Each structure stands twice: as C-alpha cells, then as structure tokens.
Amino acid sequence: MTDQTGSVKKKHLARSAEHQHLSAGCSPQEAELEAERRRYRDIIEASPSALILVGPDGGIVLVNRATERLFGYSRDELLGNPVEMLIPTSVRTGHKKYRKSYFAEPQPRIMGQGRDLYGLSKNGEEVPIEVGLTPIQMPNGIHALSAIIDLTRRKQAEDALALQADELARSNAELEQFAYVASHDLQEPLRMVRSYTELMQKRLPDDLDASARKAMKYVVEGAERMQLLIDDLLLYSRVGRADLAIDRVDVNAVVDHVINLVSVSLAEQPGACITRDELPTIRASESMLVQLFQNLIFNGLKFHGEEPARVHVSCKELKDRWDFSVQDNGIGIDAKYAERIFQVFQRLHERERYPGTGIGLAIAKRIVERHGGEIGFKCKVGKRGTRFYFKLPKDPAGRRGGSHETAVETD
C-alpha cells in the first residue's frame, strides 16, 4: 500500500512540475486557459459514468477512466477507433445508421428508450447499459458526448425480483388449485354425512333422552357449517382463478340488484335501509362487482348495533379511477385489525352473536385486486360506523392475485 501511495504521489508531483514548466513559458492568459482545461479534464475523469466523445465520423475522441473500467480497454486502444467497436456485432449496422441520423439532427436525448441496450466489452461480454447523448460544439464541428451507466447490478436485481415474482405466482396458483380440489372433493362425503345424520334425526325414537337429541343437533349444525365453509372457500378460489370478463357495467343496476338479494336481511331489521347516490357506469366484471357490493353491504347489515342498520353507497370520480364508498352505522372496527379482517376465515366476534364464515371481506379484497385496485376502511375513533372504500382503475388490467397492503384511516 505504501509503495502504491508513493508512486501516485510521484506521478502527481511530476505532472505538477510539468504544468509549472509549461506555465513558465506562457502568458498569464495562456496559463489560465491551461488551468481551465486541467479542471475540465479532472471533472471528466472524476465522473462515475463512462464518458465518450465521438466525432461526426464515428471516431472516439475522448474517454475517461470509467470508460476503461466498464469496457476493459485502455485509453490508447479506444482513441481514434470507431465507436462501433463497443457495440455488439448484431446491431452494429443499425447503430451506424442511427449515428448518422443523430448528427443530422443533434439534440440531447436518451438512446434507445423502451429497449434494452448493451455494450460490448473487450472480453466479448455484453454489458447492459443506459446511454444519454448530448451534442457538443467543437472547433471542427458537432461531436456527441455519450454518458454511459452500467446497469449490470440493476438488471441482476430485476431478474432476481422477476424470478421471485414468478415463484410466488406459481406457489399461489398451486395453493389455489389445492384449495379448489380439496374443497371440491370434500363435497360428496359431506353430503353423505348430512344426509345420514338428518335421516337418523328423523328416525330417532320419541323417548330418546334430551342429551342424545342435543348431540345429534350439534352433528347436523356442524355439517351445515362445514358446507358453508366449503362453499365460501370454493367461491374465494373461483374469484382468483376465473377469467376477468370486463364489460361496461351500470353500478346503479348492480347495487339495486344487491338490495333485492339482501331483502330478507332487511326485512328482519325493522327500520333498516340501504341508500345510494347516482353511480357511474364503469368497466369491470359484472358478476364480481355484484359479489363485491353484496359482501360489503351485507357486512354493514350484519354488524349493526342497537339502532337499525343504515348503509349508503357513493362514488367519486378521479382522473384515472373510481373511488367507491360503502358507509354503515355499525359497531365499527378497531384500526389494529386492518389486515386481519381481509384474511380468510378471520373473525373478530363470536360466531353465536354474528354468524358467518369470516371469508366475505377476503373475497371482496380479492375481487378489487383482480381489477387492479385497492381496498381499505376508515373508522372514527370512539364512534360507531365504518366506511369501506375501494378504488378501481378506469382501465382495469386484471390480475390473478394481489399483494397490495390494506389501507386504514382513522379520524
């Protein structure tokens, strides 16, 4: 390390002595000009990006140390040679045409936008790069300054991320397939259990003791609950697997249809009501939109307090999306459960008080994410009522799964 440091110092002192010698025989103006040139050279050499100055004939006029490091050539090997020596052979002919068109209309630009660019190193390896071009006026005409960034590490990170995303998508697909097959295959034995227990219940002797009848009742109720769980699990799986049939959908008609679907729940609550604003026509899957509003509206009807349930649906249009809102006056949700309530089979309350499978909001989230949107809820601390909101893009791309974080807002 000491020998290297000494060598660098000697070179620096020698260069300084040379500059002083040259300056001694120059006028003050020439000395100042030479000092200015040295400053510019130092700036160019200090750049972390590879800098290459190319003349109108395609010859390399200037390079810096970063260029030597990136491509593996020495300065002497590069200067005077055509810049195409740094271009992969498969695209050299096209690059010559591109270079000529650039010098015909020189202006600052990013080279090859929307395409992957590669440079060719001395050892024959193709290096992913990003190139910015700037025209420079020189005494002998326009030159092009290329600022080149090595994208090797970025590409490696992107490839690793893409591989992880593929593995995650494959894992999710396998999990969905397993859930679908498992729940589908459970249907037949469950139907058999239900049929025989119901038959046994009908044939029980009248003098059977109360505890035996109670036990049989639990068997029947357990089988019915299992059927509900399987049905909801199949629905959850289908939402993730089904093709997204995008069409123009009148959301007014969707909400009115849902109100009819939940009419029994409304009738069981005197004074309960569902209202809506004028809603837009959007691009979405109609069947999934019905399921989404049904789950959110039914959630508001179910989790009401002492007062009759009131649910209101509204929408706000933004530049590139629709912001829907389903507001209720129910028991509210603690913000700490923001993620949990959208997970499969997660419940915050006793089943005896609020029956259900605990999968409705998970299905709602999956539907929103299949449309490329996001869902969350807003609650007022210390007050009743919850506002579920979901954002749907005006041009839904459609997704197989979703990994969006759930948003929650508190006042």
Task: Kindly state the percentage of residues in helix.
Answer: 40-55%
- Total number of helices: 11
What is the number of domains? 4
CATH architecture of the largest domain: 2-Layer Sandwich
Taking all residues together, what is the mean pLDDT? 80
**H-E order:** HHEEHHHEEEEHHEHHEEHEEHEEE
The major pleated sheet works out as:
6 strands, antiparallel
Q: Remind me, CATH topology of the largest domain?
A: Heat Shock Protein 90
> Separation of termini?
62 Å
Write the layout of secondary structure elements.
Layout: H1 2-24, H2 28-46, E1 50-54, E2 60-63, H3 65-71, H4 75-78, H5 92-104, E3 109-110, E4 117-120, E5 126-138, E6 141-150, H6 152-203, H7 210-241, E7 247-250, H8 251-261, H9 263-267, E8 273-276, E9 281-284, H10 286-302, E10 310-317, E11 321-328, H11 360-370, E12 374-379, E13 386-393, E14 407-410
Helix pairs in contact: 6-7, 7-11, 8-10, 10-11
Organism: Natronospirillum operosum
Keywords: Kinase, Phosphoprotein, Transferase
Pfam family, one: HATPase_c
